[in-house]
Amino acid sequence: MKVDWDIFCKVVDNYGDIGVTWRLARQLVAEHHCAIRLWVDDLRAFERLCPELDINAARQWQHGVEVCHWPTDWQPADAADVVIAAFACQLPSAYMEAMAAREKAPLWMNLDYLSAEDWIIGCHGLPSVKYKQVQKYFFFPGFQVGTGGLLRERGLLERREQFQHSTEAQHEFLQGLGVDRTDGARLISLFAYENVGLADWLDVMAGDAHATHLLVPEGRILGDVERWLGVDGLSVGALQVRGALTVQVLPFVRQDQYDLLLWSCDFNAVRGEDSFVRAQWAARPMLWHIYQQEEDVHLDKLEAFLTLYTAGLSPAAKAALVGLWRAWNTGAGMAEAWVATQEHWPELQKHAQAWCLEQASQADLASALVQFYLNWI
């Protein structure tokens, strides 16, 4: 008998919440044969990741997942065997009553934000609050043993390796996006929030002796790119050349295509949570733009990850990479940090591959959630 799961997602900002829950829901269906209802409050934002979605439908099936609009005027619904409140979203009060009314209480988990901070190991899997007789549990994705791991579909690394070893497959994919890669040019993807440090980085790439082809999917960073280029209204397909730098605007693509983009590039600048994890599976040097929080608490999370990620690097390579990430996330000058990073490029490439394999040696997030349920029952 299939186990029924309800996953609740409030789209707060920038597609990160729905990106994670949509990927998780599909994997639970495809690999673990779970019956999934994904409750989403903003179907219009969801449509960017799933273009075939009917934004006016209260219920619909997409990729084996029952997608349900989470309305403000909640209608009665039976509670599932497993209930996931993604990123601490508050469940409808009527649904919580339905959980409490079940003969056997469901497993209720708060799927929290990804973090490399040490304290999450001690909190992962612990009981949280109760609603009547229904107990909620903390579930933390993470990078270390003792956490919930990272989202990773079965066979992902094998597919990536096959793609990265096929010049023909990469060429065909890039051509489909209108990208004609210049021989010898370093290919970089840029997906980020607004960043005052971008101009300095673009300046140094434009003046470099090494050619760079910068691919910029539609998103919030595009305004900063336009200001640097001195143009308005860059649209998909726009191509601008400044010195050694070619800048090209790409469409906002669905998740499987974004994976291929990351796999095609030599370096990936990413943002948020979902693209951050996917860049690690790409096994290429990367740069993370972490979501800014009040009182700069996000910088503590950044440092926690850097401590883990840079272990094993030579002191010089570590200093260069840490300097680059700190500059990018504090709006500082990027030029010196980028030049220093390039001096250690071969080491950073090997390190990205080793980190990817290290993370893949742990259980993936979907499997860890299923195992948690099996242990619970």
UniProtKB/TrEMBL annotation:
Signal peptide span: none
Coiled coil, from the record: none
InterPro entries the UniProt entry points to: EarP
Taxonomy, superkingdom: Bacteria
GO molecular function: protein-arginine rhamnosyltransferase activity
Keyword Signal in annotation: no
Catalytic activity: dTDP-beta-L-rhamnose + L-arginyl-[protein] = N(omega)-(alpha-L-rhamnosyl)-L-arginyl-[protein] + dTDP + H(+)
Segments passing through the bilayer: none
Pfam families assigned to the protein according to its UniProt record, in alphabetical order: EarP
Record flagged with keyword Iron-sulfur: no
Key words, A-Z: Glycosyltransferase, Transferase
NCBIfam families given in the database record: efp_Arg_rhamno
Chain's role: Protein-arginine rhamnosyltransferase that catalyzes the transfer of a single rhamnose to elongation factor P (EF-P) on 'Lys-32', a modification required for EF-P-dependent rescue of polyproline stalled ribosomes.
Family (UniProt): Belongs to the glycosyltransferase 104 family.
Protein name: Protein-arginine rhamnosyltransferase
Lineage: Bacteria, Pseudomonadati, Pseudomonadota, Gammaproteobacteria, Pseudomonadales
